[in-house]
Amino acid sequence: MFVNEFIKKNHAIISKYLKEKYSLDIDVKIDKATIPQWDFYSSIAMQLSKKLKRAPIDITMELSKLSFYGTGAVEAVKPGFLNFRVSKELLLKNLNGFSFSTDKKINKRVNIEFISANPTGPMNVVSGRAATFGLALSRLFQYDGWDVDKEYYINNAGNQVNIFANSIYKAYREKVKGEKVEFSEDEYKGEYIYDIAEHFKDKIAELGDEEEIINFLKKKAVTLIIDDNKKMLSGFGLDFDIWFSESSLYEKGYDKDVLLHLKEKDLLYEKDGALFVKNTELGDTQDWVLRKGTGEYTYFFGDIMYHLDKFRRGYDKAINIWGPDHQGSAKRLKILLENAFDIPRDFLEIIILQQVNLLKDGEKLKVSKRLGNFITLEEILEKVGTDVSRFYFLSRGYKQHVDFSLDTIEKENENSAVFYIQYMFARINGVLIKGNFDNKVEKLNKLGENERNMAFKLFIFPLLMSEALRKREPSMVIHTLNELAGDFHHFYHDNKIIGSNDEEHLINFIKIIGNFIKNSLNLLGFNAPERM
RNA sequence: ACGCCCAUGGCUCAGCUGGAUAGAGCAACGGACUUCUAAUCCGUAGGUCGCAGGUUCGAAUCCUGCUGGGCGUGCCA
Questions:
Q1: What is the DSSP string of A237-288?
Q2: What is the pLDDT of residue A361?
Q3: pLDDT at A363
Q4: How far apart are CA A255 and CA A235, in angstroms?
Q5: Mean per-residue pLDDT for A275-279?
Q6: For residue A65, what pLDDT band results from cuts at 50, 70 and 90?
Q7: Does residue A340 have a pLDDT over 80?
């Protein structure tokens, strides 16, 4: 990638000069310029000013006389910036050699787990945000050469599944049998519970015995939900590589392993009938329950087994994308894994994806799966389709709280910026179709002034991608694509392509840009429609 | 009380391992379709970057304190 070469070589040129002339061993930074006239800059002179006891502008002037790599122009300007403009030749070279390949392999495996919830209800808006973010993040890792497994953890071993099954049975008794039943606070009473009861009513009637019915529902209703979720997510453009079920951990005997290990480390004790782990000894603020007085294991215990399993599966890294309501679990889990199981500190990374606030008539809505008053992913997709909803979630940083209502997303459908970007590709295709051009990309041998902004964005694309990956922030890519689309629409407006004196060149140029935007959109999980 | 996150034009957000005039989109106003799709383009207006200090050549960006909002601190999940 030429951009790295550009930075590295010029960095070396300045460093070498400073070392030879002034015996200074200093880290020279070359950054992307913040003003549009220039591409890169270094503020090294201002840092050297004190050391050399000279005005920064003098030093900059001196440095500007060096011969740099790949620059079209170099400027020394007050108070002491050294500005660079990348040469057209280098930009051209980059365009001609541009490939959007994800063939790069760095021989590292990462497991990215997201959405993961109790299999007791349909996919909702919050899952939609997690799905969008998780997919985009895994694509960034892939682009960087990682082997990525996207994983969905099914919490099917806990008490919620019991409650879920019981709720369905109650719904059955109420709806089908006409009995009067009371739902307790922690039971599920959404409409979909009644639908499931309806769905299984024949089988339930056939079984008759309550215990058998509950056992049946625990299995079948959960499977029903999971299949439904799978289908839903697939329609959303997301296919997980691994669906990992919590119950498999117990089947593998991990519970015994973990307990034995902790016991050997003398990290367990019983109190009031419950089993505690001594997290305080490991630097936590309190100890935590692993097994309740009822004999059931806590989620925390499940998480320990689960992440130990991930580690044993040989990943170099595991990333969890969790909601803010789980932030408390993150700390205690990491402390225990690192100190009691010797799992390296940077193995597990927990990203807290901020919450989605549901609004109705401008008021915040208190939602819960138990009350069944959430907005499902299905509803959203019916209203606005995948691209718009995806874009809505992905265009803001993961730390941002997102307000969501069916009204706002409908408004989004009228003027979502995703269309602005997609329209760029559609326009390019329109030209190619209209002019009957093939897909073959020929070598460009020049670069017009209007094309330069776009060429430069492609030039620094590798920087952007590594930055976005480092920050775990796919939204950065979206913002750049948006800017690129702006450049293009401007260019398109100013240039009549077909029939122009420069037709061959312009066609070639838009082919390259078109391929780029299509690949970028696809990378983040968006469609690139040829017509709109 | 403690911990995590957030605060940037009317609205939604960029910009944050310090840099040169704080950028987009929506909404408002004024223009541009006999043209390769106007889902577009051009122009106007709109900001004491929550407040107060500090660090320095330079702070929206880093540090401290405060204010306001969200979440967390369960033998809930």
A1: T---SEEEEHHHHHHTTHHHHHHHHHHHTT-EEEETTEEEE-GGGGT-SS-E
A2: 66
A3: 67
A4: 36
A5: 95
A6: very high
A7: yes
Average pLDDT, whole number, for chain A?
A: 91
Q: Which of A75, A218, A83, A67 is nearest to A154 (CA)?
A: A218
A489-CA/B7-C1' distance, Å: 34
Residue at A103: amino acid letter? D
- CA A465, CA A66: separation in Å to the nearest integer? 30
Pick the CATH number of A417-524 from 1.10.8.420, 2.60.120.200, 1.50.10.150, 1.10.730.10: 1.10.730.10
Spacing of A415 CA from B25 C1' in Å = 9
Straight-line distance from CA A336 to C1' B48, in Å? 48
- Nucleotide nearest A479 (Cα, C1'): B14
Question: Nearest nucleotide (C1') to the CA of residue A478?
Answer: B14
Where do the structural domains in chain A lie, given as residue ranges?
2-86, 159-213, 417-524
Q: What is the pLDDT of residue A325?
A: 87
Average pLDDT over residues A514-519: 95
Residue A441, exposed/middle/buried by CB under 10 A (0-12, 13-18, 19+)?
Answer: middle
Task: Check residues A160 and A373 and name the one with the higher pLDDT.
Answer: A160
Decide if A321 contacts A351 (C-beta within 8 A): yes
Four-residue CA torsion sign, A220, A221, A226, A227: positive
- Spanning CA of A158 to C1' of B22, the rounded length in angstroms is 51
Positions of chain B reached by protein Cβ under 7 A = 3-6, 12-15, 17, 19-21, 24-27, 35-42, 57-58, 69-77
pLDDT of the residue at A102: 65
C1' (B34) to CA (A451) span, angstroms: 29
**Protein residue minimizing CA–C1' distance to B7:** A400
Check if A2-86 and A417-524 are the same fold: no
A362 has pLDDT over 70: no
Q: What is the CATH number of domain A2-86?
A: 3.30.1360.70
Q: Does residue A495 carry a pLDDT above 80? A: yes
Any idea which nucleotide's C1' is nearest the CA of A292? B75
pLDDT tens by residue, A278-303: 999 998 989 999 999 999 999 999 99
